[in-house]
Amino acid sequence: MKIVLVKEFRALTLGVTLLVCGVASVSGHAQDRRVPQSRQQVQLSYAPLVKRTAPAVVNIYTAKTVRTRKFTPLFDDPFFRRFFGNQIQRAVPGPKKKVQNSLGSGVIVDGDGLVVTNNHVLQGAEEITVVLNDGREFKAETVGKDVRTDIAVLRLNLTNGQQLPYLRLSDSDQLQVGDLVLAIGNPFGVGQTVTSGIVSALARKSGLSDLTSFIQTDAAINPGNSGGALVDVRGNLIGINTAIFSKTGASHGIGFAIPSNMVNRVVTSLVTSGDVVRPWLGAKGQGVTADIAESLGMPRPFGVMITGVYPNGPAARAGLQVGDVVLAIDGKEVRDAQDLRFRIATLALGGQARIDIMRRGGGASLSVDLLAPPEIPARNETLLRGRHPFEGAVVANLSPKLADELGFEHEKTGVIIRGLDRKGGAARLGFENGDIVLKVNGVKITSVRQLTENLQETASAWVIRIERDGQESNIVIR
């Protein structure tokens, strides 16, 4: 199965297709949900709901300038130049500028012209035009982007106190599997389209981000829907459609939306500060498996067993200990480690969260402060030069803040490669951005300063242990 990022109207078949769908919140009670009781109820129409919600879903057109060559790039090959020399340079014109357009969808979430869409819809955009379903066009400016959640916020250039139709973000935690939903967007550029379906599953994970907890729906979502709305039968926005599971790039009935609770958190942060800073727990753990649950006497496997606590972090100060099992955050069940990160990431800085845990067979509740991850130690970015394997590498100290920026566990420490001179020795030896340096010739590396000191020593051979994509390996240089 491939991941298909729907960056524009031309879907790239890589596997899971990124799209945008607004999610409507479900604030009603369970007793309001019922299946149709008669033929007359089956024949009821969604038209009033669509009429109320569709005006708040917009089309987003982006343009960027790319450079292209009129003739084949084979003329750049040294083989051809050996025979034709500089004649090729005179015969073949240089790169031509070409405007490339792409298409996506978005949702107005504030009458003053605030629009939510997917970050990948805006990737590389130099000019953004937003078109309402009544044909009105507006230029838009980017308020901010959050790559990890694939959310971006635009502000339309309105005049004369204009007010636009918008959808309210609601509590996606109230969604249940089986709830009816509508997906509204502009698939394949054919114009605004509405499809219906149900919530097929909740808290779906993917490799697109460590903060994903998607709503899955069978409402048809296709390229061009990216950034569009997923709404409930009350007309509330419960999510932003962002991906599909597909072999071809077209809908096969498995679509994914970013829950409105995460959308709300990111939008609030981007509008108030232009950046997204998430709280950090200061602890790491692993999901409770069936074997672990049985050994602990739990009726079923869920929760996160804590395997490490960051010294003097929020979790440590709250009293969380290694061996504790986190069961819920603010009363919402935690299924696994990724679900724990998602729950913490949807909370606002400055308050407190209640953590329900199991400790030595008994239950307890802790209050943890919701604080920003600190930059301790300072990153101290340094370009390394000299006769050693890291020549041309830019390295930095890992801290909870830098780890959060990079999407790593906050508790990771050590030295990370942040950049490479492609002509330098480190790049030629195969080092990559994101590599974490663990040891050099058997010495554990804990800081940039320690690494530079170790590199000043002469050695006939180098054995360097690194961590890449969660896997440790040795690089031996003789």
Commentary on this structure:
This protein has 478 residues and is of the alpha+beta class. The protein folds into 3 domains: 1-29 and 46-275, Thrombin, subunit H (Beta Barrel); 283-369, PDZ domain (Pdz3 Domain), CATH 2.30.42.10; 382-477, PDZ domain (Pdz3 Domain), CATH 2.30.42. Helix content is 16%, strand content 34%. It contains 11 helices and 26 strands. Strands 20, 21, 22, 23, 24, 25 and 26 form a 7-stranded antiparallel β-sheet that branches. A 6-stranded antiparallel barrel has the order 8-9-10-13-12-11. A hairpin with a 5-residue loop joins strand 5 (127-131) and strand 6. The model is unreliable at 1-28 and 74-83 (pLDDT under 50).
List the helices and strands and how they pair.
Blueprint (H helix, E strand, L loop, with lengths): L15 E2 L21 H4 L4 H7 L3 E12 L9 H7 L2 H5 L4 E15 L3 E5 L8 E5 L5 E10 L4 E6 L23 E6 L7 E12 L9 E4 L11 E4 L4 E9 L9 E5 H14 L9 E5 L2 H7 L7 E6 L4 H5 L6 E5 L2 E2 L3 H9 L6 E8 L2 E8 L12 E2 L9 E5 L2 H7 L8 E6 L4 H4 L7 E5 L2 E2 L3 H8 L6 E7 L2 E7 L1
Antiparallel strand pairs: 1-12, 2-3, 2-5, 3-4, 4-7, 5-6, 6-7, 8-9, 8-11, 9-10, 10-13, 11-12, 12-13, 14-15, 15-16, 16-17, 16-18, 18-19, 20-21, 21-22, 22-23, 23-24, 23-25, 25-26
Describe the global form: globular
Task: Give unreliable regions as ranges.
Answer: 1-28, 74-83
Q: Assign the CATH topology of the largest domain.
A: Thrombin, subunit H
User: Would you identify the CATH architecture of the largest domain?
Assistant: Beta Barrel
Q: Residue share in helices?
A: 10-25%
- Count of DSSP E strands? 26
Mean pLDDT: 83
Radius of gyration of CA atoms, rounded to a whole number? 26 Å
In the CATH hierarchy, what is the class of the largest domain?
A: Mainly Beta
Assembly type:
single chain
Q: Given the structure, what is the number of helices?
A: 11
Mind describing the biggest β-sheet? 7 strands, antiparallel
CA-CA gap between termini: 41 Å
Strand content: 25-35%
Quickly count the domains: 3
Which secondary-structure class do the elements indicate?
Answer: alpha+beta
